[in-house]
Amino acid sequence: MGKPTGFKEFKRKEDGYISVKKRISNYKEFTIKLDDKDLKNQGSRCMDCGIPFCHSSCPLGNLIPDFNHMVHQEEWQKASWILHSTNNFPEFTGRLCPAPCEKSCVLGIIEEPVSIENIEKNIVEKSFKNGWIKPKIPNKRTNYKIAIVGSGPAGLAAAQQLNSVGHNVIVFEKEDKIGGLLRYGIPNFKLEKKIIDRRVNILKKEGIKFITNANVGVNISVSDLENFDSILLCGGASEKRDLNIPGANSNGVIQAMDLLTRQTKSIYDKSIKTPELKNKNVIVIGGGDTGSDCVGTANRNGAKSVINFEIMPKPPIKRSIKTPWPYWPLQLKNSTSHKEGCDRNWLINTKEFLFNKDNNLTGLKTVNVKWETKKNNSPKLIEIEGSEKIWKCDIALLALGFTGAEATLATKLGVKINTRNNYQTTNYQTNISKIFSAGDMRRGQSLIVWAISEGREAAREIDLFLTGKTSLATKGEGQLPKI
Ligand SMILES: Cc1cc2nc3c(=O)[nH]c(=O)nc-3n(C[C@H](O)[C@H](O)[C@H](O)COP(=O)(O)OP(=O)(O)OC[C@H]3O[C@@H](n4cnc5c(N)ncnc54)[C@H](O)[C@@H]3O)c2cc1C
To answer: 251 and 377 share a domain?
Structure first.
């Protein structure tokens, strides 16, 4: 604890934002960094709370009070060592994590919680700037060869962990570039792609091999992986949920992921065209994170109007009593994209896409709904009679979530899938002993912090499987250099 009275003296502060008008004119990140003095003070808001709940609610078990303390002491390099001891990629989580740590911060019971995520981002950015993040090349190589399928945060974290103990790691990625959803799902304005390249260059120098345009099970036969001592499947959960209602095939009904992927690709390759949103009435169906990213994308592309539908009720502004501290709260999220302009509507169900004689979308027919709890406690959707409404709409973006992982690879490898369409494992190991799985492919569509955590844990299990022992850390078990 840097300063016993810090939490009394300083109010929470975070990086600022460029104005909405300026930021929606391009696809760049739009934060304005806090100065170091403010960050030092923010570090001092971390209390000596005895049991740091932040630490246990972080899927990585980040040693949060320790790095906050180092920031307050202006020992930034030590803060970076502590941070990297549990988290391979704080530059991703420091920008994009919904920060369960902050929701369980003890200070958060009576005050604004410590700005942990923002401190994390500033530690890692300072470390890159000062050249403190260097490739760590293993002293010795083993004879074990490991194939990792998928280069999202789970695959990358596992690759770095396994490489660090000397195993020979090859990552196969079906896309043309490394990064998984960080690369072609999450928009550039949330994560500029040079941030991924910066880290991938370090991983390459550490000795990890990457093969892109390598779709395992399609242009790379699964038999090509037979010679590997172990295989880790980190292919994500990319099966999109559809909306099978009348008019779903009309022009202008677009899957959110198709828009987001093409949008990011088009920033780097001008020959790639995105659906035209300029001066269009856009309706985003789905009120989650993907929906929010579509709102930000539509505003940046000059949409005339942006409306968002959500079938669930509007969450409370403050933490619901059903999810008291230190639990993850049921609470309204107002993302930076929402704040850029969007009409949000809850308890609304889309019944029909309306289209003209040329099959172009012209509107949506909706009905208001309510949820009732049945006797067995399962929720039931009830349509409210007479609440039908027609909305003018040129483009409808479907951001309805994901139904699980692609099954083809599992079928070809003989790996079992569970009832939720995820790859089935016990301690990350599938029914085939040398094949493991981690990240969204195993747990379903989730978070970056979980993907990194699962990649690290799976790497540990693989190391144990291959060598009978492991020095790789498990959750929260940082391997600190002497400081
Ligand atoms: C639009 C959107 C926004 C999001 N925003 C956030 C956010 O702000 N914060 C947050 O924490 N989380 C966010 N998430 C969730 C987060 O991105 C994922 O949980 C995380 O990326 C999962 O990592 P992963 O490594 O398991 O899989 P992925 O990132 O999905 O990576 C899987 C990779 O495997 C590759 N692959 C699949 N099959 C094969 C094959 N057969 N051969 C070779 N390669 C293959 C894919 O091409 C892909 O690159 C978001 C998700 C979406 C869709």
So the answer is: yes
